[in-house]
Amino acid sequence: MVWNDEKLIKTLEENGVVVMPTDTLYGIVGRALNASVVDRIYTIRKRNTQKPCIILICDMEELKKFGIILTKTKQKEIEKYKEPTSFIVDCENEKFKYLHRGINTLAFRIPVSQSLRNLLIKVGPLLVPSANPEGLLPAKNIAEAKKYFGDLVNFYVDGGELTGKPSKIIKLHKDGSASIIRE
């Protein structure tokens, strides 16, 4: 796929913002552990500042970077899903307020695609809201994304026409139960 592109990797490593295909839709993407990158994505996307975004991680170990350690029960719940599924977990650490926006939860997804996980191994966790301004339909191709964002992003990665759907979202509760937020 397109995730081993050297310019993509370099742009992300240098804290740029990229529009690229994810494992579901085109996303407007940047490093999740950099507050200024996250704020820039919110500004470019005109996203409601009270709504956290999904973060792509390469594996469960990455959660430790956010101060999150899952119980075995929660890990087993996540492993049940084979389609792209984002999981919401508690994160009350004030250090990550720029990500959780005071809601004290974060949503993560481990992509099924090994090549996308390889990109995450190289550049770290990525914030990945869909490539569209708040309230508009997600871009299905790079031409639509460029109409939305023009030169506000540093790099566009063309993955062709994407007609996927957003990931399923599940909420993992403190008591070990889970509920589906989005099918």
From TrEMBL:
> One GO biological process from the UniProt record?
regulation of translational fidelity
Single GO cellular component term: cytoplasm
Looking at its record, which EC class is this enzyme? Answer: transferase
List its EC numbers: 2.7.7.87
* Keywords (A to Z) from UniProt: ATP-binding, Cytoplasm, Nucleotide-binding, Nucleotidyltransferase, Transferase, tRNA processing
Instruction: Name the InterPro entries for this protein.
Output: DHBP_synth_RibB-like_a/b_dom (IPR017945), Sua5-like_dom (IPR006070), TC-AMP_synthase_SUA5 (IPR050156)
- One GO MF term attached to the UniProt entry: tRNA binding
* A Pfam family annotated for this UniProt entry: Sua5_yciO_yrdC
Annotated YrdC-like domain ranges read: 2-183
Judging by the UniProt lineage, the source's domain of life is Bacteria
Protein name as it appears in the record: L-threonylcarbamoyladenylate synthase
